[in-house]
Amino acid sequence: MASNLLHVLPPKGLLQPLAVPERLLLGPGPSNVPPRILAAGGRQLLGPMHPEVLQVMDDIKVGIQYAFQTQNQLTLAISGSGHCAIEAALLNLVEHGDPVLVAVNGIWGQRAADIARRLGASVHELLKPPGEYFTPWDIEEVSAGHGAGPWVQAGPGVSHLPLCFTQGLIRHKPSVLFITHGESSTGVLQPLEGLGKLCHRHGCLLLVDAVASLGGAPIFMDQQEIDILYSGSQKVLNAPPGSAPISFSERARKKILRRKTKPPSFYLDMHWLANYWGCDGEPRRYHHTAPINSFFSLREGLAMLAELGLENSWEHHRVNCAQLCQGLRDLGLELFVKEEVTRLPTITTVRVPEGYNWKEIIAFLTDNYAIDISGGLGPSEGKVLRIGLMGCNSTSRNVDRVLHALQDALRCCHHSKL
Ligand code: PMP
């Protein structure tokens, strides 16, 4: 029935059926969701305090402890994407004026520095060009600067970056060091050995981003003395985006307890989340209506990882990445990360070949092969193509498919208008 009350009509687009094409997601994430995980997310809802949901959360907690290789009690999933986990980590740890050291060799360090600055931290950046990693020496003392290349361009809110020499733990005495294990914008796998001990020697907590690497490359939270570790649901775990595993060591938990001020977010306040996740020994209380279906999916993603076994998962990713790298070289493409040991097994970067427009290559793969790969991001934008093989998508068959599609693209897109 027509009515004069409504000034905004039902949108025409919404009256059409939902359109979601089939696509093989071989970019830096998300990766395709296998039927078991999709089905879990499609189950009927329950309430956020129903015992069956609390049980699923308990399953998630032990699944994360396994994936992270940690016994930390303060282990849970944030209701939000990977960015939400970066914010949760920093805003619970950092208070106004706290010195924070951020290792920046790609976009994730840039983003962490931006977030820490918004929290009023005194942020110092250690800079490396995209494609490179940090040695313990870089982190402890002096990292020789590389001049004002494009990689030192400031992100939003990042105004004064050092151009020549940056200094590390000794000079700045930070309370937290942020570093990225799997730098998905550049394809670098950061070696973590010894960093936890080093940080602790300097009274600093080690915060590691493993969104793009968890399950694809070895990481041992307790043995490597990592204090805060977080990841995402949509990469190797093959669940939809929207929930982010995170864990805090006893050192990190105590630092949160010693805060003089409340964390500036209620939603991400770790006191509340610890209680809702049953980490504090108190009766569990409602905090927010969690993304319950996302938790069902995350549970199944973690269950599949547990069934496969971490070591098998690392090995799959290693072998398929090696096959991909060899195939890319055979196509005449140049790998962006020079040293094999620091190549991220989940996301491989190749330089955009001369005489090609990277956007055309990507569009060609989407249009002709229904395969999604990606261009660079942040400091690697325009320089690289990124090919992801994560979780169930990391198969020899998918390597063959993407190599075949790229070979065709290299034939058809040459001498495109640049
Ligand atoms: N860190 C890394 C290493 C990532 O690859 C990503 C996602 N590409 C994020 C953080 C942010 O995660 P999200 O997009 O889920 O917010």
From TrEMBL:
One of its GO terms (biological process) is glycine biosynthetic process, by transamination of glyoxylate. It is an enzyme of class 2 (transferase). Substrate binds at residue 386. One of its GO terms (molecular function) is L-serine-pyruvate transaminase activity. This is Alanine--glyoxylate aminotransferase. Keywords: Aminotransferase, Pyridoxal phosphate, Transferase. Its cofactor is pyridoxal 5'-phosphate. It catalyses: L-serine + pyruvate = 3-hydroxypyruvate + L-alanine; glyoxylate + L-alanine = glycine + pyruvate. The modification N6-(pyridoxal phosphate)lysine is found at residue 235. Coiled coil: none annotated. Its EC number is 2.6.1.44, 2.6.1.51. The keyword Transferase applies. InterPro entries: Aminotrans_V_dom, Aminotrans_V_PyrdxlP_BS, PyrdxlP-dep_Trfase, PyrdxlP-dep_Trfase_major, PyrdxlP-dep_Trfase_small, SP_NH2Trfase/AEP_transaminase. Belongs to the class-V pyridoxal-phosphate-dependent aminotransferase family. GO terms for cellular component: peroxisome. It comes from Eolophus roseicapilla. Gene3D superfamilies: Aspartate Aminotransferase, domain 1, Type I PLP-dependent aspartate aminotransferase-like (Major domain).
